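Researcher: Go.
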Amino acid sequence: MDRRLLSLAVISALVVASGTAQAGGLYLQEYATPSQGAAGAGANALGTDASTAFHNPAGMTRLDDHALLGGGGLLITDVQFDKSGSTPNTGGNGGNQGGLGPILSAHYVHVISDRIRFGASLVSVSGAVLDPSNGWAGRFEVQKVSFITLSAMPSIAVEVVEGFSLAASLNVLYANLDYDLAVQLPVGPEGRVKVEDADDVDIGWRL
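Model: Structure:
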């Protein structure tokens, strides 16, 4: 079969098989990659450095040699709550509830042959850090939360024809949660519920 016809057949199959996209409220756009210098514009189309193993694994076939990239940063958040007169709970606004969160990433692309590339990324793509003052009005919903994730993403890319490549990757995701909230009791002072070091691992994929 002609390679162009094969490419068209594969694209058609992918369009038919594609699922519904779902939103992620804790998804981060700050990846500690060079694309941040352009607010992420073009990150899924370019293939200029090792971070394409994360942004668009198929773009790895544009790289002519092995590539390694690491990045880091600090996420500083400003989260404010304004209590209205109809709020039933006692307490204040909680001050600045935002906390500090690390942004770390590492990416590698290995040239296997003229048409095949192997890639690997280690990156955090979602998380949350909140730490309001203890007496705030929403303390029965959340008193403190730290949600940290880390994804290991191996991938493989194959150039089917010049200018058209396919890639597949796994996403092995680790998540860790610390969560505190206050509890109203019938008598006496308020209680407190804590979830400490709750963690889980899940696996996803993309093509």
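Model: The chain has one domain: 24-206.
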